[in-house]
């Protein structure tokens, strides 16, 4: 049953607070996100959010995405877990079935450490309200945990959480890198009217969100306070791809793909997560390190 106690909780590790009025010390990224939150991007009414990462260079080529943790941000802001967390959630990255009511939502991104290297094996435990704004406190509906991939990536398939009294729309998540402490936070949606009145809302935790057919696609990159050796080259290109672009054609051996490119293979859509040249044997379903099924 929805209760408003989360709205009276206090975030932790947020420095000057969690409200929308704390933009004076936040980064360019957060400013862009805050602008979206204030209505520059009318989420949920059909128009996609304009993302800086989607800009194109002269000639139409997409700009190389910038890892978000190169944008001047410190570790991801922490927030209260609220009253509805339950341990022992199921291992799964989809919280829905075909019959689940609600607007479909996918959230993808990466987990980075302090040197902007991806962190594999991070436990991400998500929980959220259902389409009616209610949490399942007797079972495990809309609760699930997963581990970041070898590339530090995560992917959540769910619905847009419903609203409940005292809060703006949000997702809850706990993250724990191997051997590290648990980090608890929440993710927010741009364009939500209640973002301006929810005392817990923090623009630094806004996802990039855009319309994708009848559903929404969001991205967010977490940064954990995990020491990393900056002199060791990353083994994979770390930037999160922008929200999905429509498939651009059938997968073709010999073709060079960039992160974010879309293809179809055997009637299934995939998104390239790591730049490479396609070769026979690296068909999208065979190499999850290169292709994410959509
Ligand atoms: Fe909540």
Automatic annotation (TrEMBL):
Domain Chitin-binding type-3, chain residue ranges per copy: 248-294
Biased composition (Gly residues): 10-20
GO MF, one example: dioxygenase activity
InterPro entries in the cross-refs: CBM5/12, CBM_sf_5/12, Intradiol_dOase_C, Intradiol_dOase_core, Intradiol_RC_Dioxygenase, TAT_signal
SMART domains: ChtBD3
Keyword presence, Oxidoreductase: yes
Pfam family, one: CBM_5_12
Region (Disordered) location: 1-26, 58-77, 228-250
Keyword list, A-Z: Dioxygenase, Hydrolase, Oxidoreductase
Compositionally biased region (Pro residues): 231-246
PANTHER family: DIOXYGENASE (PTHR33711:SF11), DIOXYGENASE, PUTATIVE (AFU_ORTHOLOGUE AFUA_2G02910)-RELATED (PTHR33711)
Family of the protein in this entry: Belongs to the intradiol ring-cleavage dioxygenase family.
The protein's name: Dioxygenase
